[in-house]
Amino acid sequence: MMLEIIDLIFPIIAVAIFLILNERWKKKYELPLKKHVLIVLCKITICTFSALLILFVFGYLLNATEVQLLLVLAIGIGSSYAVTSYLFKPLYFKK
Fold first, then answer.
1. How do residues 6-38 score in pLDDT, each as one tens digit?
2. Which of 32, 41, 54, 64 allows an S-S link to 68, with CB 3.0 to 4.6 Å?
3. Residue 58 carries which DSSP code?
4. Which of 43, 40, 47, 46 shows the shortest CA–CA distance to 17?
5. Where residue 2 falls among pLDDT bands split at 50, 70, 90?
6. Residues 81 and 43 sit within 8 Å (Cβ to Cβ)
7. How would residue 53 be classed by pLDDT, with cut points 50, 70 and 90?
8. Any idea of the CA torsion for 35, 74, 53, 5, to the nearest 10 degrees?
């Protein structure tokens, strides 16, 4: 049971750490670490819930095949991350 939980949570934690380090080093955002972690976790949460919603709508309601689901998920996760990054951009510059 514990290994299954770690197996599910580890990729999300790895993505969060990568996004925080990438934004701090390459994009040079100077935020307090607590605020930066909160913003990144909100981005990941929104993308995760949008992916689950896409899976439910296309997989369960519309009975899409696996190939169709992969394509729709790739487009859906990419566009939801782009939208959340755009919407959270003002939070990076508030003091």
1. 888 898 899 999 999 998 898 888 889 999 999
2. 64
3. I
4. 40
5. confident
6. yes
7. very high
8. -60
* Length of the chain, in residues: 95
- Is the entire prediction scored with pTM above 0.90? no
Handedness of CA 25, 50, 14, 68 (dihedral sign): negative
Query: What is the spatial distance between Cα 76 and Cα 17, in angstroms, rounded to a whole number?
Result: 22
Cα angle value 13/87/27 (rounded, 5°): 60
Contacts of 33 (CB under 8 A, 6+ apart): 20
Do 69 and 55 contact (CB within 8 A), yes or no? yes
CB atoms within 10 A of CB 43: 20
Residue reference for tokens 């859906």: 76
